[in-house]
Design brief:
single chain; 385 residues; alpha/beta; Rossmann fold; 2 domains; 7-stranded mixed sheet; disordered C terminus
């Protein structure tokens, strides 16, 4: 049996490194960490406090799996016999109370998601517990204002590239805000209800690209449909609502997206829509789906688009159809003809719907994107779509 050679652990990104440096001097045996990378802060605290209960919380399963695999292939000497962090992927922070919460953030992140995470951290902290929040913007004001608005004392630790804030919880939050949003939209005459949350694609609205995708597709009875990267489920919900004999399988790597799509299936009474948390494009009964739909993000140099297309290729039956909506069609028009048939494009209001047919006997694909040397990482996803 071949064994993968161990590698040196990756260093944490600056904001996480600064938060870790501060957290090391604070007490706590029950600890919750988030991460901008591979769970470095949580792993370090678990190694230094072998009796502590340390949880690293992820919203995205792909990032969770990267951290898990990084731990599995790390240097044995870097992982002590006692003490290990527990990795959890879930839509919400695992229940406390915690003595210490370490929350590194990015200045380019989603503001409403950051507010949500700050609120959850303060709710789950015990009285007298510590919240450590860092950002990669050393001139930050916004994050400091959010923390000051809680009424707690905010201590500032300035770094060259970062700034970290310390908050000791002395009271329960005066008001708990619900950041979720229910969106009602119409498809083929039927009103449907979708749930969105911070961190889920197209929060508080139905994405225009999803609407164009729905307008472009007709679905026949008994069709097996795959909704790749389903987000809040707006496309999959509509497909399932059009005909009860249509079977829809939707998946996303974001735990909150899966929660939202499942809410939509239940609320709209659609038992023919199944939703799964999936980060690698694996679906039951591959090669048996008739139609695959995708609305990939535009960042990460089309690495995520390549993953979506490959998931569709594995899942579709020969002759099955892939429909992708995008504002940037060139990559698809250049790449798809090598392994797909009947590649076509239709432009509607600055969006492009790309259609391709699964070729029989297509080989495993190695997609060309960017320089081809750097694997996609979830940190590439900080840009907006």
């Amino acid at each position: 049996m071949d064994h993968q050679a161990p590698h040196a652990p990756l260093p944490p990104r600056p904001a996480e490194a600064h938060a870790l440096a501060i957290a090391r001097d604070l007490p706590g045996e029950r600890i919750l960490c988030t991460t901008r990378g591979r769970a470095q802060a949580g792993r370090t605290l678990a190694a230094e406090r072998p009796t502590a209960d340390v949880t690293v919380w992820f919203l995205d399963l792909f990032q969770h799996d990267l951290a898990r695999d990084d731990i599995a292939t790390g240097e044995p000497s870097a992982t002590p016999a006692a003490g290990s962090a527990r990795l959890v992927c879930a839509a919400d922070m695992p229940a406390g109370p915690y003595d210490l919460v370490v929350l590194p953030t990015a200045s380019g992140g989603e503001a409403e998601l950051t507010r949500d995470l700050l609120q959850q951290a303060l709710v789950q902290l015990r009285s007298g517990g510590w919240l450590v929040v860092s950002t990669d913007n050393p001139r930050d004001r916004w994050l400091h204002e959010q923390l000051t608005a809680t009424g707690e004392t905010v201590r500032v630790r300035q770094g060259a590239e970062t700034v970290t804030y310390l908050v000791e919880k002395t009271r329960e939050p005066a008001k708990i805000r619900d950041f979720s949003c229910e969106v009602v939209y119409r498809d083929r005459g039927r009103l449907l209800k979708a749930l969105t949350r911070p961190g889920v694609f197209s929060h508080r609205r139905i994405d225009p690209g999803a609407r164009h995708l729905l307008n472009a597709v007709d679905v026949a009875p008994d069709t097996r449909v795959l909704d790749i990267g389903c987000g809040p489920g707006s496309v999959g919900l509509a497909m399932a609502a059009r005909d009860p004999t249509v079977q829809v399988r939707a998946f996303d790597s974001a735990a909150r997206a899966v929660e939202c799509a499942r809410f939509g299936a239940t609320t709209n009474g659609l038992p023919n829509l199944e939703v799964a948390l999936e980060a690698h494009g694996n679906v039951p009964d591959p090669g048996t789906y008739d139609l695959a739909l995708a609305n990939p993000p535009y960042y990460a140099d089309f690495r995520i688009a390549a993953l979506f297309v490959e998931a569709a290729r594995r899942s579709l039956t020969p002759g099955g159809t892939l429909l992708v909506v995008t504002k940037q069609p060139s990559w698809y028009l250049e790449q798809l003809p090598a392994e797909w048939d009947s590649v076509a494009r239709e432009e509607v209001k600055h969006y492009h719907v790309i259609e391709a047919v699964r070729r029989e006997g297509a080989a495993e694909i190695t997609w060309g994107h960017g320089d081809g040397h750097r694997p996609w990482e979830p940190e590439d996803d900080e840009q907006s779509t």
